[in-house]
Structures are given as C-alpha cells and as structure tokens.
Amino acid sequence: MAASDQGGSQSDSKNDDSPTRETSKQFSTIHQEIESQLTRPGVSYETRVSAVLSGWEHLAGTVEEDVSQVQPLATFLYRWSLRLILQGEWPALAQIVKTRLGVTLQRCSRVVVLQPLCRTLLPLVSDPWGLTKSTIFLNKELDDNEAIAYISGETWEVVRVRVDTLIESRIEKYAFDVLKVCIRCIRLRSEGMDVPLYTDEDHNHFVDLYFMLMFKFDRQEFVSEFKKLDVMEGVSLVRRLVAKQDKGKMWRHRLKASEMGIQVLLIKTIVQMYSHDFWYLNPFI
Questions:
Q1: Which domain holds residue 48?
Q2: Residue 13 lies in a domain
Q3: By CB distance 3.0 to 4.6 Å, which of 41, 96, 226, 249 could disulfide with 264?
Q4: Within a 10 A sphere around the Cβ of 98, how many other Cβ atoms?
Q5: For the whole prediction, is pTM greater than 0.90?
Q6: Helix, strand, or coil (residue 253)
Q7: Pick from 126, 151, 168: which residue ends a domain?
C-alpha cells in the first residue's frame, strides 16, 4: 500500500511539473526564433524592432508563477531593446511602433521581475538621448554632483550601450565626452563619493575606451592621464590592450597606445625609485 502511495505521489509530482516544463519550452522556442530574426544577415532595422516587440508582447501575458521561466528571454529582449532604441534610426521609426512598444512595456511592468527592465526602457522609448544631450553634449563643464546625478539617473549598462552606440556610429567625440563623465565618477567612487556601483567588466571597458580615444585625440593628454594611474593599474590597462582580440577600427592603434603607456610607466617607476639621482626628470612626473 505504501509503495502504491509513493508511486501516486511521484505521478502527481510529474503532473505538477508538466506545465512548468511546457512554459519553459515555449519561452525557449520564442527566444530562439527571435534571436534568429535579429541575427540574420541583412535584416532591416524595422524588422529587428518588430522581432523585439513581438517578444515583449509574449511576455506581457506572463503571470507571476512563470517568472523563473521568462528571465532569460526578458534579459535578452532588454539588451536588444537598448541597442535598437539608442540607434540613430529610432527617431525615424513609425510612431505607431514606438507607441505599441511603450504600451507593451507598461503591461510587462506589472510583473515584478520585469519592472526594473521596463522602468529603464520606458523613458528611452519617448526620448532616447534627451538627458545625455542636455547634460553632457550641450554642457561641457559638469561639476562632481552633476556628473554623479547623470550616472545615477541612468544605469551603468545604459551608459555603456550609449558609448558603444556612439562609437559604432563614428561619433567618437561625443562618446569621449560621455566617457569623461564615466571616468570621473569611477574616480569619485574610489574617493568615497556616493556613486552607483559598477562591475569590473564595465570599469575596464570604460577605461580602455577612454584611453584609446584620448590616444587618438590628444597624445599629450594621454601621457598626462597615464601618469596619474597607479603603476599596477597602468600595467593592467596595457595588458588588456595588448590582449584585445577585437578587430574593430577603434582598437587599430592599441599596440601603439600600449607602447606609449609602457614608456610612461617605466619613466614614472624609475623616477620614483631614483628621484634623488634624477631630479632633472621632475617635469615628466
């Protein structure tokens, strides 16, 4: 009798898991189909937006019990949405598509696990670059509080996509302006200021791009900024640049930048060790 009860219990458990497995399979299929549309060679911008929109519409009908099943798809859609909304083609997109995406994101935000993603995206749907334009592009001289307020009003992930989008669009001067604010906030956090936490990956990405663009725009400033780095931080930066596998135009002169950085670090180290003998090198430290 006990064996019969145990068998019945196992059968009930399998039946209970069946809807969960079915939901997981459904979202996995949707994920694969949308990813295929987004990565297909030659696909238009409008088609990519439509693919992402269809994904959010699937999630709009999600119930709270499905949250563990939808997270991978939601994160995937969020990252693609950021990329598409911040691209230059977004303003020219049909207003009905933007409205439809905004309404769908509002519906998705009712699901607790989706709220942070939707709350980040919703303001961008109506005005992707307004805050950055008014804060940075039209106001070159920010004080520390303004810089912190800008980063706090966004997220590091959004700022990172902004920078990458500007570089991909070859608007490197504006990308450099945003990176200056990023580096400033990174340094302010190291000084104990209340700046949002960033990941090591974000830190390295911002620092690497900052120095590469500075190497392109102002070699003298590149040397000056490199001298401010702690020696170990400078060595880590050089190692990352040398090991970089990215073939993009942005990194074309990474080895030249690394070589110049090494020279700065060597001079700085030698002077620090033998300053009493090489006092005449003071202008370089």
A1: 9-126
A2: yes
A3: 226
A4: 17
A5: no
A6: coil
A7: 126
CB atoms within 10 A of CB 108: 25
Check if the beta carbon of residue 268 is closer than 8 Å to that of residue 210. Answer: no
Is 244 domain-assigned?
yes
What pLDDT was estimated at residue 7? Answer: 52
- How does pLDDT run across 17-44, given as a tens digit for each residue? 555 666 667 778 889 999 999 999 999 9
Helix (H) / strand (E) containing 179: helix 172-190
pLDDT average, residue stretch 166-172: 95
End-to-end CA distance of the chain: 86
Number of domains in the chain: 3
Judge if 22 and 121 occupy the same domain.
Answer: yes
**DSSP character string of 125-174:** HH-SSHHHIIIIIT-----HHHHHHHHHHS-HHHHHHHHHHHHHTT-HHH
The answer to whether the beta carbons of residues 181 and 147 sit under 8 Å apart is yes
Average pLDDT, the chain: 87
Percent of the chain having pLDDT more than 70? 85
Q: Are 171 and 183 in the same domain?
A: yes
